[in-house]
Amino acid sequence: MAGPLHGGRARALDLLRDLPRVSLANLKPNPGSKKPERRPRGRRRGRKCGRGHKGERQRGTRPRLGFEGGQTPFYIRIPKYGFNEGHSFRRQYKPLSLNRLQYLIDLGRVDPTQPIDLTQLVNGRGVSIQPLKRDYGVQLVEEGADTFKAKVNIEVQLASELAIAAIEKNGGVVTTAFYDPRSLDIVCKPVPFFLRGQPIPKRMLPPEELVPYYTDAKNRGYLADPAKFPEARLELARKAPKMVAATPKMAASLFFSDLGFLASQIPRNGTLGHVANLFASLHCLRTSLKAPQSVLMSSWFWAHSKICLISWKKGCCCCAGRVA
Fold it and tell me: Where in this chain does the record put each Large ribosomal subunit protein uL15/eL18 domain (predicted)?
């Protein structure tokens, strides 16, 4: 029978008794047995190490990007063209979609019973206008034209045709107006301006390149002739028939307002062709208006008698009974 252990063997066994069990989690190599791998240049592939013969490719002194061996490079050989010339001076317009406008109305941040301008849009946190960063106002875009249901009287700086049609479909009014940077800053923040006690400056007219836009009735410009609005509305009804008035009241008002313009187009010595063209225009407007048939039929018969009466007063051959 072996006696008790003494000396170093006993101490080693006592140490193993207190140490944790050997596992893959606590194994590690002996100190000094592992050395980090040296990775000098050119250690692989042998010979010239894949760098080829002497020159800039072997020595790592390659030319800059765009260098074409000494000849005139492409970016100097081709002449310049000012695609971005004056980009820092171009007018910027913040887009305002009809989806966003309907969202602001539904939340109560914009009151549709009052005229909607930049003051109401900025106060309702609908848009953020910064005149010092070349912002010149708001551009109304047609996103959400199919779901827009509010009747509003809105003033913007730019508006697309479909956006105008979508608002006028519900009986609303669109006006495009220009503001110079100083007036735009006052319109966006009127309270700080009036607290300063300064006189109200005169609103400037649009620059020369924007005068045709704001004097055109198709864009509902604030400098356009109001007498040309029925003609522009009829032309828009032909382009976008699905975006014309949907309510009977609005359909009838559109029909009767455009009727006066159509009847005034009959010349003094008109022929049957003139009246036929006018009836074709009325038929196009009638089919484009999304309203009940009863309203349209009553308007149609009234229009027929009205045009015949006007044609007879002007001496048109088809209604006066004489040969042209």
Answer: 95-175
For residues 125 and 114, give the distance between their C-alpha atoms in angstroms, rounded to a whole number: 17
Q: How confident is the model at residue 317 (pLDDT cuts 50, 70, 90)?
A: very low
Q: What is the number of residues in the chain? A: 324
Q: Token pair for residue 122?
A: 């900025």
Contacts for 96 with CB less than 8 Å, ≥ 6 apart: 121, 126, 127, 138, 139, 140, 141, 156
Looking at residue 213, its pLDDT comes to 95
The token duo for 163 is: 């956006």
Question: Strand ranges (DSSP E) for the chain?
Answer: 92-97, 135-141, 153-156, 158-159, 173-176
CA distance 216 to 213: 5
218 within 8 A of 235, measured Cβ to Cβ: yes
Extract the tokens encoding 142: 């047609």
**pLDDT value, residue 300:** 53
Domains recognised in the chain with CATH numbers = 90-225 (3.100.10.10), 245-324 (no CATH)
Q: Which residue has the higher pLDDT, 149 or 2?
A: 149
DSSP 263-285: HTT--TT--HHHHHHHHHHHHHH
pTM above 0.90, yes or no: no
Coil, helix or strand at residue 175: strand
- Closest Cα to residue 167, out of 112, 212, 223? 112
**Which of 120, 110, 105 minimizes the C-alpha distance to 190?**
120
String of DSSP letters for 150-173:
---EEEESEE-HHHHHHHHHTT-E
Residue 208 in this model has a pLDDT that exceeds 50: yes
- Residue 308, pLDDT score: 59
Confirm if 307 and 285 have CB atoms less than 8 A apart.
no
Angle at 139 between CA 97 and CA 155, to 5 degrees: 95
